[in-house]
Amino acid sequence: MFLNSCHSYELGKELSNAGIPHVLCIKDRVRDDIASIFTRAFYLALSTGRCIKDSFIIGRQAVRADPGVPKMEEMKFILFSKDHTEVLWNFSAFARSTDSNTILPEQLSYHGEHEKYMGKLNLLPLLTKHFIGRRVEIFNTILNLRRRKIVVISASKRFHKKRHRGVGKTQLAIAVAHRVFSRSITKDGVIFVGVDGVRNFIDFEKLLHKQLRDHGINAVPGLTQALRNLNILLVIDGVDCVSMENPRKFKEFIECIINETQDVHVLMTRHTPFDNDFSNSNEIVHQHIGGLKSDHDAARLFINRSSSLSISEITRVMHSPLFETLDNHPRKIEMAASQIQSPLNPHDLH
Ligand SMILES: Nc1ncnc2c1ncn2[C@@H]1O[C@H](COP(=O)(O)OP(=O)(O)OP(=O)(O)O)[C@@H](O)[C@H]1O
Ligand SMILES: [Mg+2]
Fold it and tell me: pTM for the full model?
């Protein structure tokens, strides 16, 4: 039973005590738009074979991930349940793992087995373990992809130098790919092609063709013909080299996607933004990302990646000048966490 109205907590508790197996209710007041964010995500998850607890967590996450919602609002949604793992709509073709005992909200990342979803095989790369933050960036990227055909994720200006590589572009692209895939935002799925380090345009095309083939799309005679009538998200990760070495061909490729396909959306990552102009450039959005948004997220990543330090040592590192120089930059944090060993050497902290 879903008591989808403000101040339904006390009633929900009573109904649960009276024997109703699953009661969802709301503590205090909740805005209508927030209730509807939760409801949409919750029922979508239930209807695709998730158990009640997972669907509830997904509903709360959707509320938390929405940039227009104040902090902690998701905690107002309460579930009283006798058996959280019960699946209400268990369509076998849609069913997903319901090993929910181990799932905590923060762990509901995509680091797990490749899975089947809505009958389609998820061939996307896995997110890093303990993926942190980036909620606003994920949201904005999906919004931009809905509005435009091409989105390019680059590092923000202060991180353009080579030594600042690793700001998290690939991880963000993977997170977006999973989100679009799991919510079936594009009808014909999501294809991820990693081209980092590929210089030659022919090799680039070969990789694209291979990924398309793996998804059952035959790109012969031509890529754009094959994609023409599909509604698909193509994620092309790390186009730096190929686009720099073959600027003209790369430009033609992008313009073909824009002009000759109807509903293909491309998400690209490139460390620095493109400097050449594309015709039809109103179909291209440039997004820039910096380090992790909050110091809290940076600290979580550091704690997660450091294995030998004690809690008091971690605290010392986090209050040191060194930690400030890491700039919430994920790869720098990971490197520092793996290099700083116990016992702490005070020289390492400057
Ligand atoms: N949001 C995140 N949560 C946890 N770890 C992250 C996050 N973003 C990045 N990382 C970690 O930081 C490292 C660098 O991330 P990533 O490969 O996405 O950066 P990049 O910008 O694509 O780098 P490059 O410029 O080399 O392509 C990875 O090892 C990844 O595990
Ligand atoms: Mg990358």
Answer: 0.70
